[in-house]
Amino acid sequence: MMCALQSRRRSLRHQGGLAAAGPSSDYILDMSATLQPAKQASAPGAGVPTIWLDGKWYDRDTATVSVYDHGLLYGDGVFEGIRIYGGKIFRLAEHLERLYDSAHAIWMTVPMPRDEMATVTEEAVRRSGITEGYIRHIVTRGVGDLTYDPQATPKPSVVIIVKPQIDPPPEAYERGVRTVIVDIVRNHPGTVNPMIKSNNLMNSALAMQEALRRGAFEGIMRNYRGELTECTTSNLFIVRNGAALTPPLTSGLLPGTRRDFIFDVGKDVGVEVREEVLRDEDLFSADEAFLTSTTREAVPIVTVDDRTIGTGTPGPVTKRLLEGFRRRAHANASTGGQEQNRLRSP
Questions:
Q1: Distance CA 68, CA 91 (A)
Q2: Is residue 270 classed exposed, middle or buried when 0-12, 13-18 and 19+ CB atoms within 10 A define those classes?
């Protein structure tokens, strides 16, 4: 299944991505409409959480979904998470490409083209007034009877949530964090493939709950072969002899956009970044370690299972990559026009 999914992803990129079948007028409201969230921002730039649900605008208190939605009943759907920096959306094109690829992998058609999804996303950010925030795209199989038969849900549902960003505490970056290797094994690629960003997150939820019970910031997961894969909500990197190493996709992990971004940042700051199969002993003997995600950027790991990593403090390579990450992230977020051109190009 891993090879088949990678083949489908390559095919989609060659074809310019998925376009929705049929008209999407039912899903788009006139962008000049005056509907606004009912609540007001508490301070300039703080904004108000704003939700777009199947063509209508809501705030946090008024948005609801049907109890018969298959995303609620079965976790049947896909999602994406994107950062907002300075009021600009970060790497919208890449995130939407992954969203549509994930939908295709579960044989679901997103009911609107990517360029319209981008337009609504930008409008949601504008309406929210949020300048430092987080966007969650959710596409579910839709509302239907209690059955796994997709014919019962002819119309998928689309949700876009815009909310303020909640950063890890400053000491997470200054002092580093404690992590644990959890007993929960990452999904086998022949079940719910980790390369699909699925709404069915029980695997990650159980792993994170174990980590929290053990007093850790994050949980690190192995695959069925005993190789390290990723954290419950983040990608994993170690530093050895000045190079940053991360598990390959063939170990069974989500191709994180921040993971890919670190490869670009490494070139900027002069740090080699490459893939390598990693096991417990590689992590324990690493000079440094860190995790990356949409909401966390790059967080230093200083302890794993009560074993100190390196000097037990955030290392120089991690710090250099974090600085380069933030510098490049703000620069990339300001190129929204270029991303829109990519979304519209064949």
A1: 33
A2: exposed
Judge if pTM exceeds 0.90.
no
| In a domain? residue 341 | no
Residues 83-140 have pLDDT tens digits of 999 999 999 999 999 999 999 999 999 999 999 999 999 999 999 999 999 999 999 9
User: Whole domain around residue 192: which residue ranges?
Assistant: 170-332
Q: For residue 7, is pLDDT > 70?
A: no
Out of 56, 197, 267, 319, the active site residue is 197
Domains in the chain: how many in total?
2
Question: Any catalytic annotation for residue 267?
Answer: no
pLDDT at position 332 is 74
Out of 103, 135, 166, pick the residue that ends a domain: 166
